[in-house]
Amino acid sequence: MKKFALLTILGIALTGNLFAQKTLPVPPGELNLQPMLQPIPMTAKFINDTSYIWCGTLVKSHIDQKYHLFYSRWPRKYGMSAWVTSSEVAHAVSDSPFGPFQFKDVTLPHRGAEYWDGMYMHNPTVHFFDGKYYLYYAGNFGDGKITSPQLNWTHRNNQRIGVAIADDPNGPWKRFDKPLIAISQDTTAHDAQMVANPSVTQMPDGRYLMVYKAVAKKKPQPFGGPVVHLTAISDKPEGPFVKQNKPIFTAENVDFPAEDPFVWYQDNCYYAIVKDMKGAFTNAGRSLVLFYSLDGLDWKLAKHPLVSTLDIKWEDGTTKKLEALERPQLFFENGKLVALLCAVNETLGHSYNVQIPLK
User: Which domains are seen in the chain, by residue range?
Assistant: First the structure.
């Protein structure tokens, strides 16, 4: 009994509170996101009757203290595959990260085929770095012909990566006449055909790491391939980014194992959620999976790789089996994980964004 009392006194002296607890970092690669996923409130379903909704990314404004959702949209009347010719980046606002969100404006509208990103804006991911907002995205140009249900391959293969910058998420946003990441001129390069799906995080040394999707020209056209992911590093969030040219998230004998990366730094390592296209990394089939890296360049499957299957749970107790759960994006507030945003397809004619609470 005396020993217990002594330990108790020591505990109070060391912590200042008998019940005080310190959250210790998770060992690198051991983060487990799946049990953190909570049922989704109906207010966190962002949908529109006339547009496909895709690619949600969220930031809280330091100016108006509201939550700003940036997302891709295009007319439903054109069909699902018209994303590649008709997508634009729009903007909605809410008082809560779980909605309801109200449309406010179009952040990145079409601006003409003479621009590298004039015909299509897609894959937005927003960040607040050093007092400014950075909206990374993919853009393209082409003949503008809507060929749905088939892709317009000219537009698909003209995808490049850029950034828009603003002092306020309400805008105005400054766009640039040249992309941040263009295709490599070497026809044998991993990114010789197209680049898209950018994700960016700040590194511990102050530099910026980008992970992006790349398509080579080594496989039959017009699709090309293999499809891999590459990294690039910059001293500034606006670039220039220097390509590292080493494929990551690869799987043996699989030409297109993953896409839709979201990368961040936590607990002394980098993590990335990616869409597992067909079950190359777990036995769950198409799903969301987790990778980690100590340096941002060499990546391994995390200890708990499965983030989510294609089943989502609603707050009313129902579960929905989806056709697609894609474009994962995390939202942090005060350094804590708050929500996982995903693009959802219930059917090929019905898409929306969800903000999944994280415990």
Answer: 37-262+315-357 (2.115.10.20)
